[in-house]
Structure formats: C-alpha cells, structure tokens
Amino acid sequence: MRFRSGPLQKERAMPIQTENLHIAALRPLPAPAALAASLPRDEAVSRTVADSRAAIRAILAGRDDRLLVVAGPCSVHDPAAALDYAARLAEMRHALSDRLEIVMRVYFEKPRTTVGWKGLINDPHLDGSDRIEDGLPLARRLLLEINRMGLPAATEFLDPILPQYFADLIAWGAIGARTTESQIHRQLASGLSCPVGFKNGTDGGVQVALDAIRSASRPHSFPAITAEGRAAIATTTGNDACHVVLRGGHGGPNYGADHVAAVAAAAAKAGIEPGIVIDASHANSDKDPARQPEVIADVAARIRTGDSRIRGVMLESHLVAGRQDLRDGQVPVYGQSITDGCLGWEDSRALLLDLAGAAATRLRCAA
Ligand SMILES: O=C[C@H](O)[C@H](O)COP(=O)(O)O
Ligand SMILES: C=C(OP(=O)(O)O)C(=O)O
Asked: Whose CA is nearest to atom 8 of ligand 1?
C-alpha cells in the first residue's frame, strides 16, 4: 500500500519518541567505592559496627538478655545537631551498656505519605535542589563520626541502590511500614549485613512483616549496582536476623500485651524467631511524641515482669521536643525535628533510665 503524500505522511516519517518523556535530567553519581575511598572506615569504626551487629543478633535470638534501644531523631537534617545528640546518647550507651544495647537512629531517607522533604541524602541543602551527590558524602561522614564515638547507627533503607554507599556503617536497619510488602525491599534485606526489622504495615497488618521475614531469610537474585557503580545481578544468601517491629496502624496502637502475644504466636507458627521490637512512636503514639512515655511505661512494666518476647524498643527523640516546619530552606530551631515530632533530650534520658531499670529486673528474673 502506498502512503498518500501530505501532512499525515510527514508525521509518520518522524521518529516517535517513547523514552524519557518524563525525565528532566540524569546526572552521574560517583561509584560507591570512590565515596568509600574518600571517606574510609577505620578499624575502630569497623569494630563498633561489627560488635553492635553481633550484640543485636544475640539479643534478638535471646542469647543476650539485654534490651535493644534504637533512639534518635525522626530524621537528620543538621549534622551538627545530630552530633550534639550523638555525644549525649553515646554517654548513655556507655553508662547503661550492661542492660541496654543503645543504637542511634540516624535516618537519612524519609518515605513520604504523599510528598515532602525526602531526607538529608536526597535533599541535603533542604531547598528542593535534590543534590544527592552532596547528600551521600554528608551522610557517610556523619555515620563515620557517630561510629567513632563508639555509638552504632541504625537507619531505614528505602532506596535499593543507596545502601552500597553506606550500609557498611550501619548496625541495625529497618524496612519501613510503607515498603515491608515490597519484594524489592525484601530482596534488599536478604543481602544486608546487619539485622533488619520489618515494620508492620501502615494499616496495622502484621502478616506482611512475617511474610517479609520469611522472604528475606531466603536467597534472592536481583538487579543491583557493584561497588564500582556498574549494573549487576546480586545474588544473596538470605538474612537470618530479621524480625518484626510493631509501630501501630490505622486501627490504633499494637504495643499491648495481647498484640505482642498474638504476633509471637503467629511468628512461632511461621517458624520465625519471636523476638519483637516495639516502636513507641508513629501509630503507637498516634504521632504525638508526648505519648511515647506512656508506651514505654507500659512496655517497661511488662519487661519488668520478665516478658522476654520484647527484645527491643524504638524512640523518636531529639535535643528539643516537638517538630517544626522548614521555612524557605531555613530551620528556625536548632536540634528540633523537621519531620515527625520527637521527645526532647531530658524526657528521652528519663525513658532510657526507666528501660535500663526494667531490663535489669528482667536480667535478675532470668538469672
Ligand atoms: O517517620 C516518618 C513519617 O511518619 C513518614 O516518613 C511519613 O511521613 P508523612 O506522612 O509526613 O509524609
Ligand atoms: C517512617 C518511619 O516509620 P514507619 O515506617 O513506621 O512509618 C520511621 O521510623 O521513620
């Protein structure tokens, strides 16, 4: 068949673009190995990471009767304030180390319900310029400094490529409520070197976390990048240190004794270690930081009676209580969260002491 000449034929002769219709730019990132070479891990840092991972594994498996405590800001937006907080937390870690394994929440990646600031790696200048190339070295430098204080770090893994840049500095990882059901994140967890907590879903469903643990404990093969920054197929061995983190859901909190018993029973039925971490924040405190002490008081009371299923707790805590909004890239209050509200330092300190007391009582019960 012959085409008619005219405008239609001209249109057909043009190549039809089907790719990059919504891509505004692609900027190269340095390879993970290049970043690690410019910001290397020394032996002391490696020791802090490795020792804490081993301690957390032992706590989760019930071989160490201490309590894991993951405490720190909802997100890091100011490295100076994070280091100020870290210095205080490091002191508490050393003072309470016979009862608590304290790890700092150093969260750089924020999963948003719709849109919002995505964290220090994505937008380190807090102004929407999204200079990930600046955020990665900032994050790695901060993790090195925190580990150098002898304080191990915990983070949420959100992007599947970024762990290559800093996962060597992380003692405990979380997969968040919005991504626990994602196969990509389960695969990622199967290859991470640290213990990983899977949050229950935002709707409160715990089954997705149990399914995630089963999935992440198995080997997977999936696309990834190498340390040299090349596309590759990663084949993992599976991660045997995954566990549930209860964070409440749309129906309300799930830190109570009945919930914990039900989750432990479901885990046992699925052949999963029943060690549970309770997040005092998020839907367990209806996102009101002032309610975290209520949650911790309840959980600590149960730990005092010897409840060994609760192996860890998480607190959202910063230097200054509450939260603030970013104003034109400016942060009005030093040491206050720009994402979810946090407890202030003095209240956080009091909770750490209470948890240490509860863990000591449980240790005596077990002896
Ligand atoms: O912990 C952080 C937040 O709860 C999470 O990132 C969702 O935040 P958003 O609902 O404000 O987007
Ligand atoms: C986003 C977080 O939690 P969740 O996934 O439970 O909402 C968080 O801990 O920062």
From this structure: 112
